[in-house]
Amino acid sequence: MKLRLFLALSTLLFAGQALANDCELEISANDQLQFDKKELTIGADCQQVKLTLTHTGKLPVAQMGHNWVVTDSDQFQAVAQEGMTQGLDNEYLVPGDKRVLLHTDMIGGGESTSITFDVSTLEKGGDYTFFCSFPGHWAVMKGKLIVE
After folding, report:
1. 58-91, pLDDT tens digit by residue?
2. Which of 11, 16, 113, 147 is the one with CA 20 to 30 A from 101?
3. What percent of the chain has pLDDT over 90?
4. CATH assignment of 2-147?
5. What element of type H or E holds 45?
């Protein structure tokens, strides 16, 4: 009886951890213009998600800054190109651009940043692209955000 109770509790604990992990996403970027993931998935049971971006490189933000930006996939290239002229102070994004659905701060080597957002701002099954908006980075630093 004790063994069955232990197994049941263990199963619940691990299931809870699995759900929590879908609601806490991590991604890193380096000095070689790479995210460590090409795809991130938000679990179906998540109401809020915390995303943490870590810059594992050494170069400063002005030389090799990275952020994590989400747009509808059909908008990402236009958002990235228009943002390049906006400067580091605006994180290379047009201020108030409604096409930018989510974004972190721009960070340099050795730094990290997090955002927490309400999943209801995204559509289940929507077509979303994440990218770094630092000039030129968006061409290679991009991936797919999946909302289950």
Report:
1. 999 999 999 999 999 999 999 999 999 999 999 9
2. 16
3. 85
4. 2.60.40.420
5. none
